[in-house]
Amino acid sequence: MRLITHNMLQCHAKGCDPSQSYPLELKEVQLESLDAEYSEDFIRRLIPKLDWNVLVHTAFALGVAELPKELPDVQDEAFLRKVHQVALETRVKEAQMVCNGCGHVYPIKDGVPNMLLQDNEV
Ligand SMILES: [Zn+2]
C-alpha cells in the first residue's frame, strides 16, 4: 500500500468518533520501496489533494523522509521528487492500521489493506 493511499483512508466503523477516525495509525510496519515512474505534472496535481500534515508526520514516524512542515511556496524538482518517493514509492507491506476513534484494527497483508468491517461494525 502506498503512503498516498494511507493519506486518504479513514475508519468507517459504526459509532466511530469522526474527529478521531483519521488518520489511521500505522503500527508494526514493514516497508518496502518500489520504483514508480516520476511525473512532475502528476506530483504537482497531487500535492494540493494530500493532507500535508499527515504525510509529513507519517513519513517522519516511519523514518522514510523529513518533509518540510509547511508546504514550500517554491516547489523545486528536489522537493517534488521527495514527495514522489514518499507518497508513491514507499510501500507498506505489512502493518496494523489502528483507528484512534474506536480502536478498530485494519490489517495490511502483502501490501493490501483490508478495510472490511464485520456486519455488527457497519
Ligand atoms: Zn474507528
Would you kindly provide a written description of the structure presented here, covering whatever features stand out?
By secondary structure, the protein is α+β, with helices and mostly antiparallel strands. It has a single domain, classed as N-terminal domain of TfIIb, CATH 2.20.25. The chain has four helices and four strands; from the N terminus they run αβαααβββ. It has a four-stranded antiparallel beta sheet. It is globular. It binds zinc ion (ZN). Zinc ion binds at residues 11, 13, 16, 21, 99, 101-102, 104. Zinc ion (ZN) binds next to loops.
Question: TL;DR of this structure?
Answer:
Belongs to the TRM112 family. By secondary structure, the chain is of the alpha+beta class.
Helices and strands, with pairings:
Layout: H1 3-6, E1 25-33, H2 40-46, H3 52-61, H4 77-89, E2 90-98, E3 105-109, E4 112-113
The protein binds zinc ion.
Gap between N and C termini: 23 Å
The CATH topology label is N-terminal domain of TfIIb
**Number of DSSP E strands:** 4
- Outline the low-pLDDT stretches: none
Can you write the helix and strand succession as a string?
HEHHHEEE
CATH class: Mainly Beta
By helix and strand content, what is the structural category?
A: alpha+beta
Shape: globular
Tell me the β content. Answer: 15-25%
Query: What kind of oligomer do you see?
Result: single chain
Strand neighbour order, sheet with most strands: 1-2-3-4
On the 0 to 100 scale, the average pLDDT is 96
Question: Which ions, cofactors or small ligands are bound in this entry?
Answer: zinc ion
Main β sheet profile = 4 strands, antiparallel
What's the number of helices? 4
